Amino acid sequence: xxxxxxxxxxxxxxxxxxxxxxxxxxxxxVVKGYGGKIFLQLDKVNFRDKHLRFVTGQSxxxxxxxxxxxxxxxxxxxxxxxxxxxxxxxxxxxxxIQHRLFDGKNSYMINHxxxxxxxxxxxxxxxxxxxxxxxxxxxxxRQLHEQPEKATYLGKASYYGxxxxxxxxxxxxxxxxxxxxxxxxxxxNMQRSHWRTEEGxxxxxxxxxxxxxxxxxxxxxxxxxxxxxxxxxxxxxxxxQGKWPDFAVPKSYGREVPSESYxxxxxxxxxxxxxxxxxxxxxxxxxxxxxxxxxxxxxxEIKDRLAEVYKTTGNNKPLKYQIVTHxxxxxxxxxxxxxxxxxxxxxxxxxxxxxxxxxxxxxxxNRFMIVKDETELAGGLIKVFDxxxxxxxxxxxxxxxxxxxxxxxxxxxxxxxxxSPKGWKSLNKLAKRIEDQGVTVKYFxxxxxxxxxxxxxxxxxxxxxxxxxxCPEDWYIxxxx
Length: 481
Description:
The chain is of the alpha+beta class and 481 residues long. The protein is built from 8 helices and 27 strands. It starts with 15 loop residues before the first helix and ends in an 18-residue tail after the last helix.
């Protein structure tokens, strides 16, 4: 694997004025490199990117790397400040699709299977495109031209043996980035942070070519933390076409119940000594086991959620056990906090290495409690069983029998204020496993939502499965060419 080494070259900027002059000069070079007047007059672009992504933190097995296929079709309207993203993931036999739209003011998720749409207030221009925009260097060049005041010149850097200009850049609404620009005015590298890896993402743009007078990189390779993240297989840039999207929801589609944001910390007492706490996409169920708590739900900020329990109850019993459901990175986000709190990790043997990889210190063996298939814990207060499904090879389900509670991560949930979610085939398999435990479940608790679903919701889901996902016939990226 190629390593990237940045070597600072002696360059003294005597004042902010000189730095600004360097940025201005560099932006002029970038504009010229990407097509000059034609580049500046672009009102729309259509970027199609077929790429292979190497998945570790979200793979089926903690011991393997998945290779997932993605096809993206992104249209950007510079005049309207709008984006339209059509996205297809997975294999041809088992795909999932998304259609995301930002019309210049509002963001929408469009469901073509159900012919419906919902507004998503958590998404804006910078986040609507699933980070596909970062894959097109031309968009970065356009932002640099439009917001040069957001750039800071960093001097020269050695990139594959050549001295090139480097700038720090943070356009409005986007994270901070560092760009490397060659003598032709082409962006050849972009770096931005990632919550887990110290080095973060590094985008390597190469094989720049012109299409109808404007330039883009025909090849892209991305690393995260110095390890392979994704590689483009086919990249197409279209600047002239007969029909562009109208950046509007189809008029015949019905409006879905909007999803909740849960921006503020919430705590719900579900039974005596049982609290569901969290905000955003991270929630934990805490179960009082006498002189300590058990936790289920491993997102970041576990300490904050535990503090909310202390605030509500007036006690400060320690978190002694944390049930780690599966190995996906988002659900391991709070494991450093769990370690710092002195708690024991309750998990399957296959996921020990993934947990150890998240925590900075070496975890001694006595800080692990290993579950094999199914078991009772906390003197029968809690039951746990391992449920293999299409999302993860191992996923621990927790039952709290006396309170009729089910707790799962990435299993069964809804973030909508009302209505029961539609089910899927493997949900019936889950229902059978619950039945085998001899536990009557009335409440379904999730790590991704504050909403507590009921047994009536579950019954609806079991009897009303969602329609099979089909790629719209008029989507170019559905042709798998």
